[in-house]
Amino acid sequence: MKKSNLKIAVIGTGNRGCKYLTLLREAGANVVAVADASPARRQKAVEIAGDSCLSFPSATQMLESGITPDAAIIATPERAHAADAMLLLDAGAHLLLEKPLATTLAECEAIAALAKKRNRIAGVCHVLRYHPYFEKLHELATCGKYGQTVSITHRINVGIDRACHTFVRGPWGDTAATSPMLLSKCCHDMDLLVWLTASTAASVASTGGRLFFRPENAPLHSADRCTSCSIEQTCPYSAVDLYVRRGEWTAGFDGDTDSIAEALKNNPYGRCVFRCGNTTVDRQAVVTGFRSGAIATLTMNLFTATDNRDTHICLTGGEIHGNGSVITVTPLKGLQEIHDFTDTVAKPFHAGADRRLILDFLNAASGNSAKMLADIDSAIESHRICFAAISAMR
Ligand SMILES: NC(=O)c1ccc[n+]([C@@H]2O[C@H](COP(=O)([O-])OP(=O)(O)OC[C@H]3O[C@@H](n4cnc5c(N)ncnc54)[C@H](O)[C@@H]3O)[C@@H](O)[C@H]2O)c1
Q1: Residue 11 C-alpha to ligand 1 middle, in angstroms?
Q2: Cys staple from 13: which of 36, 200, 267, 303, with CB 3.0 to 4.6 Å?
């Protein structure tokens, strides 16, 4: 990569923003400013980025202070993406935007149009494109050796622990404050389907909704909170079991096991899953007819023991099946091939995909390539399919 001294800003320094800061630092990038609404998050971000990095409560205040970054990463919650993206593009920055791009199609299209008008790089954090396992899946599906893709069956097994933590009790349980799950979680998967088919959608159909986590399905003798529930010990969705007995998904909690148990008496994560008032779907299927002729079915399901993605691709010359770790290619004529990524997928930062994403952004923003692998134009297509499916389901 050509050496560059791009001035970089990171807007939103929570979970994702801090990961990107760590990777930017590793890459020797010049992070001049961070912006986050939370003082504690800003302070943590400066500790990662280095003392010379300035911090601000918002992107607006950063720009008003006279800092004009050459490139910016936006990792705020999805409802804040569009305004800051437009502001930073207007100020002349190249952009890397967390997914989903924005929460309406009009906003997504406006960001893409402004990036084009200003001739700026605009990439989206669709990390699957940079993930060694998905890169292999893409290579096998598009190399031509097994013919043309006819259909794809893609399953997103959310995993019940992730589901209860993030999409029922957590912020994404309230789709009005965040976004529908198809957009917030599955836009990665829709992007994968667009990438695998190298095509655009001709038709989209969808069905789904919230079947189970409703007050009327709450078991007899269950309580509003797991900490005072008489049947908690046998409930597969128990918060006490998840956070206290198993000690999983506790990154957002402060203190030891006793403090976590105490916190569950009052915080959102101790609520009964049947009485959270969540609005998110618990399963959704989308069938997309692509202009290439391929048909893709995406099924997202909360009620799975495992947390993985399973993809089955039928081509005119064979089948490719990936279970999230191992890819098996079965040609209609010839020998079966196995590609085992079990060790790779266990590696941190999405198996190194986050690092490759950041390097791709730095490379493109430095003028070494015309666009990123996860470019906004392909992301617009996958977001368009998600928005179409969300309205088709209603
Ligand atoms: N690419 C991926 O694999 C992946 C994974 C998880 C989350 N995400 C996406 O990353 C984004 C951030 O998610 P997260 O998990 O880091 O959330 P987070 O809550 O940990 O971090 C968001 C940060 O933004 C700050 N913030 C909120 N509004 C702001 C504003 N207007 N200006 C400045 N700061 C503001 C918050 O204080 C917080 O520190 C979301 O869009 C999410 O969907 C992407």
Answers
A1: 9
A2: 36
